[in-house]
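Exam revision sheet. Question 4 asks you to relate a sequence to its structure. Input first:
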Amino acid sequence: MNPALGFTALVVVLVATVAVGFYGLRLSRATSDFYVASREISPLWNASAIGGEYLSAASFLGVAGLLMAYGVDMLAYPVGYTAGYLVLLLLVAAPLRRSGAYTLPDFAEERLGSTAVRRVASVFVAVIAWLYLVPQLQGAGLTLQTVTGAPRWVGAVVVAAAVVGVSAAGGMRSVTLVQGFHFWLKLTAIAVPAVFLVLAWRSAGTPSLTAPDVPRFPHTTVVRLDTQVRFDVTTPVTVTVSGTLDGTAYGEGPATGGDQHGVPVRLVRGEHTAEGGAGLTFPEGVPVPHKVGLEPATGAMWASPLSGAGGRSHPLYAVYSILLATFLGTMGLPHVLVRFYTNPDGRAARRTTLLVLILLSGFYLLPPVYGALGRIFAPQLLLTGQTDTAVLVLPQITQAGEAGRLLAALATAGAFAAFVSTASGLTVSVAGVVSQDLLRGSTHGFRWASLAAAVPPLAMTVATPGLPVADAIGLAFAVAASSFCPLLVLGIWWRGLTDLGALFGLVAGGGLAAVAVVLTSVRGPGGGWIAALLEEPAAWTVPVAFAVMVVGSLLTRGRISRADVDRVMLRMHLPEEVGAQPEPGRPGQSGQLGVPVPRETPGAPGPAGERSPTVRRT
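Answer key, structure tokens:
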């Protein structure tokens, strides 16, 4: 891709993001604007904003990359991502909105009357958000490196700076405007190139996606390597090499832009190592070597469920664990749940969730197109291991000339919109918790908390190489499913939940999932049952969390205050027109941001002594 065009796409997205965000600053005057946008967001725009922040790097790049590498089993990710909102619609959306909370820790304290549970919940909000933020920043670095050649850390820093600026400027009001705009940009950026990809596939004679052999190079292909790559050769082949291969340096050639030809080298069966900067020219029709750890799979195996295509160990367990993590983890994502606090009432929260289901269902039809056609048009990504870039490189591979470059620029713009919108929502959710619990809930404290929320994941991004994008985000879903999902389901629907039961369950389920995430990140992908259990922990950590919460609550049932529980349960489950009453404030926080603020009237004094602006519906 033309680096100048890719850089221009990045600049346009960032400028539009900052412009929309600072426009939101004009509407953000009262403190409730910073936390819940004064609860004035319409269902359609709120659904667009949820789609904007939910369709992250995992959705825009990662689903296509995993499907290309590991086969149809990876359709579990988009299915789980979408179906999670069905559970959210049925069990959580309306009661959570009626609870009157600003954040998940607010809900935990109001429901259970425990500051200890609130503190633990605050820790998990930060952990989940940071786990989710790291792959966003890594994806931003990968995208910028793909289109411009810049070091990976540059993209991470650019996105982090933009996110902190938007979040600090206008809080939830600004972020809502930004994310709604980003959803429609992402949908356009992935849908338009997909149409041209399908046309190119038909023009090529509709080559089979289920061929009985492994992917082959469709034409003479030059593979340039940015970093060291170890790959497996299953069929001996003679390639033209420029750079360092297996410890031997070869002369410059076309692969590196030199005037001389590269050196022919015979690659025998087995592992080989090419250093960063090397170029390998493969002849037409030869099988594509695969990066070590990604076993070659025939088209028939790739398209067959539970075949273990691509080297996925214990595929049946992996698929069910992925489905459980994404299906239940959605309701535990702090940046998603905070959106339901911005609805005017419980009915609007349900409508928002239904619209989200419709929008996501349309979007997730598209990434699998890129993953499937990537095996035909860009099989070299299986050698480099950069299957996450399929959405970015396929438009230019299939469309020659300026049209291909423009489509690639559009895809790049959508990718950066995915990173910025998701990172913005995560930053706001962490900033809300940090500012309320540590900085007395002031508007000034919220702005400093936005900076504090972005620094740790940025440091982790620079310090770690990272997993495949969708895999990394799947681990965040596993922690959410093992911590907040049991807390919300039992807290909303079971009167018997106690503070100690909830505390033990959060620590047991969330803690075990977090340990599995850390071990997987440190050791990388592996083989065998231990590796499978650590890489996809939700199948065992979620049942542990539910069991510990239930058993712990039964053993401590004497700690339940029936009057307090009845009051909270009635507020969550009665319709607003029946159970209307002032929303509960946080103990000891009267007059501060911790108190849920009723909808302001035009010109009325805000909670912080400010004059709120005229209420406008977004």
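Marking note for examiners. Residues 152-203 form the longest helix (52 residues).
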